# Entry
Amino acid sequence: MALVGLVRVSTSKQETARQHDDLDPSCVKVFEEKVSGTIKVADRPGLRAALDYLRPGDLLTVQEADRLGRNLLEGLIVLNDLFQQGIQVKVLHGIAAGEHTERSLILDLALALAEDRRRDIARKSRDGMDAAARRGRKGGRPRVVDADKRRVILARHAEGQSLREISRGVGVSLAVVHGEVKASQEPAASAEPA
# Structure
C-alpha cells in the first residue's frame, strides 16, 4: 500500500509549499496541479497522472477534501472512480480527516462545503468590485505605461518598428504595446464619418 499525494491550487500565482510540507514526508510520490478544482477530471493533468499511477490498495492523499475538487459533482465522480478501483482516500485535515474506503456522508459534506465556499468567495469578489465601481474605482492591474513610455511606444510605432521590437526596446509586454497602439487609433477611427 502506497500513499500517493495530490497537491492542487487554482492558479499559478498560488503557493503549494504548505501542501507539500504535509504530503512529501509520507507519500512515495506527489502530483501537483495548478488548475481550478471546478473543472472536469479529464482536464486536470495532475489528478489524471495520479489516477494513472495509483494501484488498488493505494491511498490518494490530500491535505483537505477540497483538493479533490471544488465542484460537488466532479468531486463525487473522482471519489466513485477511486473507490471502484479499490483505491482509498486519505484526507489529512478538515472535517473529513481520516482514511476512507468508500463514500460517506462526511466526505460528501466536505465536498459540498468546498463548493459552497468557492461560490461564497466568488460572490464576495463580485460584490467588492461592484462596490468599488459605485465609488468610481475600477479594478484590475495598475497601468505599467506612464505618459513618457506611451510617447516612446507611439513614436516607435510611427517610425515603422514592429510591435515586438517596441516591446523589447521599451521593456513592456507585447500585449501592453498592442493595447497602447490600439487605444491611440480608436479616437481617430471614431472621428471618421460613417
